[in-house]
């Protein structure tokens, strides 16, 4: 019999803590080694219980989930799944910043057992805990130069695109923190419109978009059918819709999931291959699975420029590896090198 996954639950509500213990403990894959009400208690148990994965609440007495994430990643790096209620902008903002600080995923807190959505929410939580427990996370210093306040971007003249017209980006596990670094590196003067597919729980999409707009130099918003992409703006598809480009405009599609994802990065990148050809740039960042690989292969065949994140900086080297396996990647670059390369391409270098 395979060894069970050791789970530490950090949740201040006794009712919710018992509910999570019941959900996770009822799954044969897991062993709930402790369930505590504060981050401070959780930190004390890190080296004693040695959990494989942590279920972490955001609103906690004393240290909140963001500060707890920073402490965990500095002291004993452990995969963290943030379990948050979809209640207000403040909680969503803390959850998004926890992702930026090293947490791997955000899932919605399961509601009571009598709720119709309980089974699916409980199943999703357990699936994420099982998957993320396998991710190898690395130690990170608490002072990482992270600025969680929104800054007004400097006004920078936009450069010409030098023959390129559009950038498509696909990211999943580890994506939020990667996107902050990459979009920040592009700067406010980046010449091309950006279309982005980030795998995220539907109920957190609005919070993610608002957060990303606040911590990068770009205006980030949810795309609408018929939108004409513009430089300085990042368009993200609505939940449960694919986003494609046709005749230079956004098309939202209610078609089946691809690679178990809806929205799918491959749908986006394939459409860029058809609509823009060699005038498009495709980027696949960190993420589990293979979404984006087929779409990037189509872009490669169409003469587009394709970049994937190197294994050395990926939280999960799944999607970039899948794209590389198909021979779809022109350049494999570590995360800090992607933004400078994109800027070079728009400058004709």
List segments where confidence is low: pLDDT < 50 over at least 5 consecutive residues.
142-158
User: What is the overall pLDDT average?
Assistant: 89
Radius of gyration (Å): 20 Å
Kindly state the percentage of residues in helix: 25-40%
Major beta sheet, specifics?
7 strands, parallel
CATH class membership of the largest domain = Alpha Beta
Distance between the termini: 56 Å
What is the H-and-E element order? Answer: EHEHEHEHEHEHEHEEEEHEHEHEH
* Form type: elongated
Q: Kindly report the spatial arrangement of strands forming the biggest sheet.
A: 8-9-7-6-12-13-14
How many domains would you count in the coordinates? 2
Reported by name, the CATH topology of the largest domain is: Rossmann fold
Got a strand count?
14
Count helical runs: 11
User: What's the CATH H-level superfamily name of the largest domain?
Assistant: Methylesterase CheB, C-terminal domain
What is the architecture of the largest domain at the second tier of CATH? 3-Layer(aba) Sandwich
- Residues in β-strands, percent: 15-25%
């Amino acid at each position: 019999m395979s060894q069970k996954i050791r789970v530490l639950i950090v949740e201040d509500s006794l009712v919710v803590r018992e509910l999570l213990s019941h959900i996770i403990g009822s799954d044969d894959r897991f062993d709930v080694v402790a369930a505590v009400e504060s981050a401070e208690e959780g930190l004390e148990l890190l080296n004693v219980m040695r959990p494989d994965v942590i279920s972490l609440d955001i609103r906690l007495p004393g240290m909140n989930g963001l500060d707890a994430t920073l402490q965990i990643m500095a002291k004993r790096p452990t995969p963290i799944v943030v379990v948050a209620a979809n209640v207000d902008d403040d909680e969503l903002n803390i959850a998004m910043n926890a992702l930026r600080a090293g947490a791997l995923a955000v899932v919605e807190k399961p509601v009571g057992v009598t709720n119709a959505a309980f089974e699916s929410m409980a199943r999703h939580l357990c699936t994420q805990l099982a998957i993320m427990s396998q991710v190898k996370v690395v130690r990170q210093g608490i002072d990482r130069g992270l600025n969680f306040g929104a800054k007004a971007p400097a006004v920078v003249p936009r450069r010409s695109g030098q023959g390129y017209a559009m950038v498509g980006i696909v990211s999943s596990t580890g994506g939020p923190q990667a996107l902050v670094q990459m979009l920040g590196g592009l700067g406010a003067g980046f010449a091309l419109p950006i279309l982005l597919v980030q795998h995220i729980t539907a109920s957190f999409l609005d919070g993610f978009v608002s957060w990303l707009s606040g911590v990068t130099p770009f205006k980030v918003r949810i795309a609408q059918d018929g939108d004409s992409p513009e430089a300085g703006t990042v368009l993200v598809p609505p939940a449960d819709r694919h986003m494609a480009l046709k005749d230079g405009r956004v098309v939202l599609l209610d078609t089946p999931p691809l690679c178990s994802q809806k929205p799918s990065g491959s749908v986006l990148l394939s459409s860029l291959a058809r609509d823009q050809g060699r005038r498009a740039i495709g980027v696949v960042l960190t993420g589990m699975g293979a979404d984006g690989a087929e779409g990037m292969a189509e872009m490669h065949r169409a003469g587009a420029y394709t970049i994937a994140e190197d294994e050395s900086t990926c939280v999960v080297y799944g999607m970039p590896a899948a794209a590389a396996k198909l021979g779809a990647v022109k350049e494999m670059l570590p995360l800090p090198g992607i933004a400078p390369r994109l800027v070079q391409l728009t400058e004709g270098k």
